[in-house]
Structures are given as structure tokens and as C-alpha cells.
Amino acid sequence: MKKSHILLLGALLLLPGCGRAEADTRTIIRIGHNQSTNHPTHIALEAFETFIERQLGEQYNVEVFPSELLGSQNEMVQLTQTGAINFCVASNSLLETFSKNYSLFNLPYLFSSSEAYHAAMDDKAITGPIFESTKQAGFEAVTWLDAGTRNFYTVDRPIETPADLKGLKIRTQQSPTNVEMMRLLGGSATPMGFGEVYTALQSKVIDGAENNEMALTDNGHGDVCKYYSYDMHQMIPDILIGNLAFLEGLPAEERAVFEQGFALINTVQREEWSKAVESAKEKAQQQQGVIFNYPDTAPFEQACQPLHESMLQSNPDLQPVYEAIQRHNQQFSTS
User: Fold this and answer.
1) Do the Cβ atoms of 101 and 130 come closer than 8 Å?
2) pTM of the entire predicted model
């Protein structure tokens, strides 16, 4: 076990609730994530806390830890594996290292619209095989969280066509899929940790990045990047994972309550996400001077199509899930 992991485990003993009063025999449920307290994810997890304690307050005391208080996302996943904490929010790219099934959600232009994206992610025939594919690692997904659409934003030029990316260094997530996506689009992928992006933009180490609108405001990227282009290349969910031993050890009646709570997290987070995106966009336009533009997405989608073909060739077991997603795409394209 890594030294940092050991220190985190020790730190947990000093967290509020760990030194419980002798009369308090409730089980503590610890949930970690890396967002601020005003983020839609934290608001949704607080709603879960209230719900579980209202329904099962004699048995459980839920504690939510934002802003990486329990460590980095990678460390929180390790803590969830061991059962040191019960739940954490993980990125799809990180989960891809535990199960190649998660690589499906990283595909650019997997979903044709936000409506198709939400419908597909709500379809348990699609998410079930993927969410359960990490059981051998000691955890499984319990719900998904909306992270919006990922789009390109750049310092000094708009991205109207893939040709506009030529010669530009664009920060991407540390995922082979994203690196190949940038190659196909003609740009130069520069993977790095998200916390390094602002400085890299400011010092012109990179020319732009790709993320949702809240990166402009919550992380200050709109202070440097003045063009945000809705090419809508990815819709990648964040995932709430739970320790498998804890989940499987719940009595049936309690597990049913927790399942209701997981559904509540999803509902609240999506509602709060919509409001947060609108607020971020307004702030970016009015206070940061960001210009939003809407290029034709067809050339971008066409350039990325080889990624779909190579993924299905390397992971044919995902073909039925991929086809199910395409049915949702067709439904919303004709509705």
C-alpha cells in the first residue's frame, strides 16, 4: 500500500464522526468527491445524505467530503475498493483503467444529442453490464452524473472546422481515446492534470482545452480563453461508485432505500447541472468576454468515426450495448 494511501487511512480516523460518542452506534457512510460545495454533484450528494438519514437515521450517519478532502480521485477510488470509505465520484477515464467497458463512454460522438445521452444512460440494459464490470475490483457503479458536453475552447481563435485545430496544442484528459481523437481532428493532444491547465493556458504551453462550460468560470479558464466552440465531441458521465462488500451486505429493505437515494442523486444533480451551465455561460459572456460559437458538427463527427470502428473491433462484447445506444440516437433524431 502506498504511503499516501496509508496516511489517508490514518487521516480518516481523525475526521468528524470517527471519534463517535459512545451512545452513537450508527454506521458512518463516507462519500468523497473532488468538486466544490456549490457544484451540482455536491448539492445532489447532500440531498442523498438528507434522504438516507430521514429514512434510516437510526442506522446510518452520512458524511459528504468535497474538494478532495479524502485525497485525489485516484486515491478515493482505492479507498472505496478497500472499504475505508463507502462511495466516491470517479471520472469515466479513471474507471476505464479498471474495466475496458468504460471506454465506450469515451467515444466522441457516441450520442447524437443530450436527449439521447440521458435516455441511454437511464437505460439499465445499457449501463448495467458496464456498471457491474468492476465488481472484481471491489466496487460497482450505483448511478451516473451529468457532466454536460465537452467542447473546445481556445485562447485567440474560434474552432469552426477540424482544420482550425491544425497546429494547436489542446489539453485533453489522460485517455488513449482522447489522444487519438485529437490526432484524427488534426490537433496535437497534450494530456495533463486538470489542475495544471490554467497555468498552461496562461503561459501559452497549450493553445486551448476541451471541457464543459463550468471550466470557464469555476476554474477561471475563461479569463484566458476567449472562444468556446460547441463542436459537442463528447458527452461523458461522471460515475458514483460504491464499495461492493458494503452494498452486498445491506439487508434487502435497506438496499431498496439506498437505491431510491441513488435515483435521487441522479435527479437532483441533473436539475442542478442545467441551472449551473446556464449561469456559467452567462457569467463567461458578461464578465469574462467569452464568445460562444456553434460550428457544424458533421465534419468533426466524420473525422472521429474510425474510433468507433476500432473500439468495436477490439471489444466486440460491447457491440450490443453500442447498438442499443444507436437506437436511442435514432429515436431522438426522428422525434
Assistant:
1) yes
2) 0.90
pLDDT by position in tens, the chain (length 335): 455 554 565 556 555 555 444 568 999 999 999 998 999 999 999 999 999 999 999 999 999 999 999 999 999 999 999 999 999 999 998 999 999 999 999 999 999 999 999 999 999 999 999 999 999 999 999 999 999 999 999 999 999 999 999 999 999 988 888 999 999 999 999 998 888 999 999 999 999 999 999 999 999 999 999 999 999 999 999 999 999 999 999 999 999 999 999 999 999 999 999 999 999 999 999 999 999 999 999 999 999 999 999 999 999 999 999 999 999 999 998 76
C-alpha pair distances (Å), 273 with each of 28, 145, 225: 28, 9, 22
Distances (CA, A) of 244 to 93, 133, 248, 301, 314: 20, 12, 6, 37, 28
Range 185-191, long-range pairs (CB < 8 A, 24+ positions): 185/233, 185/300, 185/303, 185/304, 186/162, 186/303
How many other CB atoms are there within 10 angstroms of residue 185's CB atom?
A: 25
Length of the chain, please? 335
